[in-house]
Amino acid sequence: RKEVEQDPGPFNVPEGATVAFNCTYSNSASQSFFWYRQDCRKEPKLLMSVYSSGNEDGRFTAQLNRASQYISLLIRDSKLSDSATYLCVVFQGSQGNLIFGKGTKLSVKP
Amino acid sequence: DTEVTQTPKHLVMGMTNKKSLKCEQHMGHRAMYWYKQKAKKPPELMFVYSYEKLSINESVPSRFSPECPNSSLLNLHLHALQPEDSALYLCASRGQEKFNIQYFGAGTRLSVL
Description:
The complex is a heterodimer of chains A (about 110) and B (about 110).
Chain A (H helix, E strand, L loop, with lengths): L3 E3 L4 E4 L4 E7 L6 E7 L5 E7 L4 E3 L2 E6 L4 E6 L8 E9 L4 E4 L3 E6 L1
Parallel strand pairs in A: 2-11
Antiparallel strand pairs in A: 1-3, 3-8, 4-5, 4-9, 6-7, 7-8, 9-10, 9-11
Chain B lengths: L3 E4 L2 E4 L4 E8 L5 E7 L6 E7 L2 E5 L6 E7 L2 E7 L7 E8 L7 E3 L3 E5 L1
């Protein structure tokens, strides 16, 4: 089982749609959880940290279920500018490094 | 300021060349990372430095040699690379606060001819 698994995508959605990405992780000792966004030929940029209580930032909502080892990202009212690859990322303190999912590509069409 | 600066942005080198990639941050972060990213793949960890000491080397070939001269700088020395080493090389740093967030530089896009 891969350490961090994401929906394979790609997701092609119209502007204004709501889209949800899911992610599972295998190491129950994982400490911190993130969604990063990466535009084509650019570096990954932090979109949101993910907390057990769930957290929201504008149109973006992230949820964490530690019991199920499951992370989600919901994007409401999609914009063209949301088109990117979304990386589910887990921090494992034992080695102090991030474990990346393979990413899910989102294309928002007019 | 959450800036990690990498130079150069682009690099083309032959297989016999020696070159260096540089990374700098002034956030006081004591953990710094090198990643390699190929097209349509997630970043792959290469090296981790913690308090200027190499703590993780992910079985990277010796033609890649990292160096951490001080707490703000991280270098990656390149020698006798292969065409398959062409990729985006990303530097990142992490502080102790903010839930272990890593901040990435814009990367160096390397082409080996």
